[in-house]
Amino acid sequence: MQRINADQSQPLFDTATSRRIEETALAGLPANTLMPRAGLAVARLARALAPHARRIWVACGPGNNGGDGLEAAAQMQQRGIQVVATWLGQEARASSDTLVALGRARAAGVQFADTPPTDLDAQDLCIDALLGLGQSRAPSGSMASWIVAMNASPAPTLAVDLPTGLHTDTGAFATNSVATSADESSAAAIIRAEHTLSLLTLKPGLFTAHGRDSAGQVWLDALGVTPGAAASARLLGAPPAPQRSHASHKGSYGDVAVIGGAPGMTGAALLAATAALHHGAGRVFVGLLDGGSMQVHPQQPELMFRTPGALKLHALAVVCGCGGGEAVRPLLPRVLGEAARLVLDADALNAIASDTALQALLRYRSAQGLPTVLTPHPLEAARLLGCTTQQIQADRLAAAQQLADRFACVAVLKGSGTVIAAPLRTPAINPTGNALLATAGTGDVLAGMVGARLAAGQYAMDAACDAVYMHGLAADGWPDGKLLTANALAQF
């Protein structure tokens, strides 16, 4: 069993791939092998998480996830723990493995009930084994009421495979229809677990959208099975520490130019420039769009100010759009046509979303071998794809991949579990970061961080992945009780 931490890259497998892996494993193993392994894994983790537990409620659904819960209940009852199991299944419709698990639970003396324990305050642990792989419909009826009871219990919850109510592949709330803004009400029908034991494979939904809030600490038990299949996505791990040769100079690490900062929004461009400087760029130029209000930054005199027209874009990694307003739009044809390496953020993305000519120029950059990284938040992504923010958030992996494919670039879809995608590459989900980043200017900082890595010669996908990971890691390591501001983050 493995605790999933943010420092090690992990393969992620969607529903279809996980099922193929499971089918292959079942074909090569004796009957009734995987479910007992799964139940034992759940029981072992439950005992590790609550070593002094005397009472445990196991909520079991009608399918094989419920069978895993029944196996775990039998294992724990045999070890002297008082287990109450609620089961939504019917013997006439249960799988053969689940029937075996049910028999073991009964033989072990597990107490079965039709409703959750009335003494929830006396339970030491709750186990959610209601729905597992492939869940897509919102829980209803008794299952929904059990979820409410489990969330209300003061005891911690361990979810088996996935928290019930969480879409396996997307991390969205499982719903009965296309996502709308009303889907926030589905939050009442999703388990909020302190721990989740993912069985056989890790699933993308655990790490993006609502997954991180619902799953808590994620664990993996592969049940002795080697996947033998290509991953659907990957969870980012810590990038290697940057190495700088003694025999290097500022030219070794490239030049960044930040173009943005229209009147009233100068700070956005300065945040991006400061971040580029503190993340290793050899030189940083700033082309403000406010008419040249600054010639020197008192706190960052290393920044060099130029008029945007004076910047030699063909030799620069350009970060364009931070605080750009409408003033950035006229500059975009030149930026898209000339920038050697390019990060597009904020108002540059909004301008491109409404202009098919700019979109064509963006796609043409790939044909010229010029790397480009887009860094939209969900609303900007929705504008680029001509859909709603709710549709973006309903399937963040698909949305990021659609952006990357449509515009032939690297797309960084920001948010909880930021997704990084590129054409013909396995998309990545970032495990770092927290709600401290939900403040103005942190996206500008990220754009500058990506720009610094592009300037140093990193491939666009690697530059984006490394910057996103380190951006989130800074927030994760932020001192307790200390306010995170974008300016402090840029210099961290």
What is the number of helices?
16
| Major β-sheet strand ordering | 2-10-19-18-17-16-15-14-11-12-13
- The percent of residues in helical segments reads 25-40%
How much of the polypeptide forms β-strand, as a percent range? 15-25%
- Total number of beta strands: 19
Rg over alpha carbons: 25 Å
Mean pLDDT: 95
Uncertain stretches = 177-185
Instruction: Specify the overall morphology.
Output: elongated
Structural class based on helices, strands and sheet pairing? alpha/beta
Largest sheet: 11 strands, mixed
Q: Kindly report how far apart the N and C termini lie.
A: 35 Å
Description:
Helix 9 runs parallel beside helix 11. The chain is built from 16 helices and 19 strands. It is elongated, with a radius of gyration of 25 Å. Helices cover 36% and strands 15% of the residues. The protein has helices spanning 15-27, 34-49, 64-78, 96-108, 141-152, 211-215, 266-278, 332-338, 346-353, 356-367, 378-385, 389-394, 396-407, 442-455, 460-476, 486-490; strands at 2-3, 10-12, 55-60, 82-87, 111-113, 125-129, 157-160, 195-199, 217-221, 233-235, 255-260, 283-288, 304-305, 317-320, 341-344, 372-374, 410-413, 419-421, 428-429. A hairpin with a 5-residue loop joins strand 17 (410-413) and strand 18 (419-421). By secondary structure, the protein is α/β, with parallel strands linked by helices. It starts with a strand and ends with a helix.
